[in-house]
Write a structure and sequence with these properties.
- The complex is a heterodimer of chains A (about 325) and B (about 290).
- Chain A is an all-beta fold and about 325 residues long.
- In chain A, about 0% of the residues lie in helices and about 35% in strands.
- Chain A is built from one helix and 17 strands.
- In chain A, about 45% of the residues are buried.
- In chain B, strands 6, 7, 9, 12, 14, 15, 16, 17 and 19 form a nine-stranded antiparallel β-sheet that branches. In chain B, strands 8, 10, 11, 13 and 18 form a five-stranded antiparallel β-sheet that branches.
- The chains are: A mainly beta (about 325), B mainly beta (about 290).
- Strand 3 of chain A pairs antiparallel with strand 3 of chain B, so a sheet runs across the interface.
Chain lengths: ~325, ~290
């Protein structure tokens, strides 16, 4: 770089010292200027981080977070659920925490999010060639990455919901329908307030080495007074028998309905179906009833989280 | 200050450029205007579409944020957009709706519009779907073949005694700003929110051929039932459908759609203004060229 002191050129007293590139780009590239005065040409196009309504400056669709794992999934907070109760909970967390404060405060203020969409795909690889009972655990996180339904003062029997995953009954699809639940607690009882849902990956006796999978979740917070989450899931079936087609399932949940809930301002966790805080993202952790086939078996995965918000004027981050 | 680029670094150009006097607080794109002013403005770069250098993909054409209940929830291409209905090859509608009334056979329906004119026409429909919990659903099945002012081409979901029934709502925002209570007057609660549905629907916008492609629609229905005010029942329902409708034969109205009306059968047909909807709809479109 050659330094061009703009305040020493010409007759005017400029104040922005800039460092210019010493070589031209080999092709037309975008120019950038940073706070240190470095003028660069980079092969990094302007990224589309959100969509505005055509012709306006109103933002509605936002790319919140992307997490790509090349090999196995990484350890995440041990506070997240892993039905193996392993020391290292493996998975991913996607949410607003990596966004600039200006974006978070403008677009993700309380109640501004209309719905969240998570699209994920990847590969499951049984290290021993037998990935049984693999599954994903889905948890809603707040802006501190804590599970939203993790309050410890909840009374028994409330703030939980049925997360039911249904599969096709077709005999060409190795799925008889698995029922899993959005438990309150790690042990699956309805006490406490530890919410998660599960998508099952493999069937009992599944015997395959590599299985692609797809996961699509839509989460709507608060609407009608309760959060709810629904999604679709598909993965390869048992490749030991090629007559089996892909496994697929879909599910939906929202908290059970007791007679009423309170506004968050009340701070009263004893009320029903109270999330305690606004969602800021999701965690996907892995699990299996067979510990040897836990999260390390999931790889080459991509998780992309977008949010749809109430039309909001664009801010500069 | 003005710097003659042809006097610096032995360049041969002759375009005078004006360098910025201030640096941005964070890394920003550099822009040059027709006067040669180089700036790194703090204004954001806004996109309304996904596309390549030569072709435009999905464009966010409009968003309707309907705060209060209305009988006819219409969304149209935003006035600020440069696109018109004839430019659009296909629409995608992401919708999240609540209704204020229960009612037998009170379906959520979709009507294509050209301006204020309903261009719904008789369509042939077919669908296969799946629903869970004890409410049958007609997502796309038996799609309405009605025309005229209150016609509609597509059932979004069957709300019969199920998903509707919001007795009172100050505005749609309130449903997201607080956990709204189920009605419990003994606790001093005054509002109850008992139903809603959301999903995604595509629409092929041909002049002579129109269809709602048989893609997998995911429609989640929040079903209300008084028995769900217990600890043992969850008020939920989920429906998926492979539903499609298509026009066969001559068209009734060859205008292109530039918007849609979301409504209910009981309300839209003019039978009752008390069957209303509120919510948010995002409308995307793929332009035919460019």
């Amino acid at each position: 770089m050659s330094t061009l002191a703009t305040n020493k050129l010409g007759t005017l007293a400029g104040t922005a010292d800039m460092s210019l590139p010493t070589t031209r780009p080999s092709q037309t590239l975008s120019g950038f200027l940073d706070s240190a005065g470095n003028l660069t040409f980079e092969d990094s196009p302007v990224k589309c981080e959100f969509l505005v309504i055509d012709g306006t400056t109103k933002v509605t669709k936002i790319l919140v977070d992307v997490n790509t794992q090349a090999k196995s999934l990484s350890p995440v907070s041990s506070a997240l659920y892993d039905d193996q109760n392993l020391d290292n909970v493996l998975g991913i967390e996607v949410g607003t925490w990596n966004l600039p404060e200006a974006v978070k405060s403008a677009y993700f203020q309380n109640g501004n999010v209309r719905w969240w969409d998570l699209q994920a795909n990847g590969s499951a690889q049984g290290e021993t060639g037998n990935l049984q009972y693999g599954k994903f655990n889905v948890q809603i996180l707040d802006d501190s990455k804590a599970p939203v339904l993790s309050g410890t003062t909840a009374t028994q029997g409330i703030a939980h919901s049925a997360w039911t995953v249904y599969g096709s009954a077709s005999n060409q699809i190795q799925q008889a329908g698995s029922n899993t639940y959005w438990y309150n607690t790690a042990d699956g009882s309805n006490s406490g307030n530890f919410g998660y849902g599960q998508y099952w990956l493999a069937n009992s006796g599944g015997n395959y080495v590599i299985a692609p999978w797809f996961l699509n979740i839509k989460l709507i917070p608060w609407m009608n007074g309760y959060w709810k989450i629904g999604g679709r899931y598909a993965s390869f079936g048992d490749v030991s028998n090629l007559s089996y087609g892909p496994r697929q399932s879909w599910g939906y949940t929202q908290p059970q309905m007791n007679s009423f809930v309170r506004a968050p301002a009340s701070g009263n966790y004893t009320d029903r179906a109270y999330m305690g805080s606004y969602p800021a993202g999701l965690a996907i952790t892995t699990g299996s009833s067979n510990a040897s086939n836990d999260g390390a078996s999931y790889s080459f995965a991509n998780f992309t989280l977008t949010a749809t918000i109430k039309p909001t004027t664009v801010v500069v981050a | 200050m003005t710097v003659r680029t042809d006097k610096i670094q032995a360049l041969t150009g002759s375009a005078p450029l004006t360098l910025p006097k201030a640096l941005p607080t964070t890394k920003k794109n550099v822009k040059v205007d027709t006067s040669g002013n180089i700036t790194a403005p703090s204004t954001s770069v806004n996109f309304s579409s996904l596309g390549t250098a030569s072709e435009t993909g999905w464009v966010l054409l409009a968003v309707k944020d309907q705060q209060t209940f209305t009988t006819n929830f219409q969304i149209s291409i935003d006035d600020a957009s440069g696109y018109s209905g004839s430019d659009i090859y296909q629409y995608r509608l992401e919708w999240s709706l609540v209704s204020n009334r229960n009612g037998n056979s009170n379906h959520f329906v979709l009507s294509p519009m050209n301006g204020a004119t309903n261009i719904s026409q008789s369509m042939s429909g077919t669908a296969s779907g799946w629903s869970k919990v004890d409410v049958s659903w007609t997502g796309g099945v038996n799609s309405r073949n009605t025309t005229g002012t209150y016609g509609s081409e597509h059932f979004l979901c069957n709300t019969a005694t199920s998903v509707a029934g919001v007795n009172a709502m100050t505005n749609f925002d309130a449903m997201f700003s607080n956990p709204i209570p189920w009605s419990d007057s003994s606790a001093g609660e005054t509002a109850s929110y008992k139903g809603g549905a959301w999903g995604t629907t595509d629409y092929y916008n041909g002049a002579s051929n129109r269809m709602i492609p048989p893609v997998l629609e995911q429609v989640n229905v929040n079903r209300w039932n008084s028995s769900y005010n217990t600890s043992s029942n969850g008020g939920y329902n989920i429906c998926f459908a492979m539903a499609g409708v298509i026009k066969k034969g001559s068209v009734t109205n060859s205008s292109f759609a530039d918007g849609f009306t979301f409504s209910t059968t009981n309300g839209w047909d003019g039978n009752s203004s008390t069957y209303q909807l509120a919510g948010q709809v995002n409308m995307y479109g793929i332009p035919k060229t460019g």
